[in-house]
Amino acid sequence: MTSTHAKPLSDLVSEAITISKDAISSFGNLTASQLNWKPSLDNWSIAQCFDHLVIANAAYFPTFETVLSGKTKNTFWEKVPFLPSVFGKLVIKAVAPETTSKRRNPKIFDPSSSSVNDDI
Asked: Is the separation of the CB atoms in 51 and 116 below 8 Å?
């Protein structure tokens, strides 16, 4: 499925590299203890946030590979013009930094409940 709004793959890769460099710049010098510090029992540590992102993103790698290889076939619902846009915008709004309401992520995306290695 090609969208007139989709960014070229090279732009997405470039953005991912920039985000990675920013994360390393901001958090790369923290110790394991600092990365695993939690402000409360109900909050995730920095390391757990990164662990969550790694787990959640890795779950989509097989889908990305299928799409990139050209072997994907859209379902009926994916072909309905407005549905992907509507649901995509809802997800983006739900995870935006300025969103104040908490939402529970799917259990499979939960980070480790113990200390996360500092090479996260």
From this structure: yes
Q: How confident is the model at residue 2 (pLDDT cuts 50, 70, 90)?
A: very low
Under 8 Å between Cβ of 119 and 23:
no
Angle (deg, nearest 10), helices 9-27 and 46-58: 160
Quote the CA–CA distance of 97 and 54 in Å, as a whole number: 18
Q: What is the pLDDT of residues 69-91, one digit of tens each?
A: 888 887 887 777 777 778 778 87
Closest CA to 54 of 96, 110, 7: 110
Q: Cβ–Cβ contacts within 10 Å for residue 94, how many?
A: 11
C-alpha–C-alpha distance, residues 56 and 58, integer Å: 6
What whole-number distance in Å separates Cα of residue 86 and Cα of residue 32?
40
Question: Residue 70: left (phi > 0), alpha (psi -120 to 50), or beta?
Answer: left
**Which amino acid appears at position 119 of this protein?**
D
**CA distance between the termini of the chain:** 34
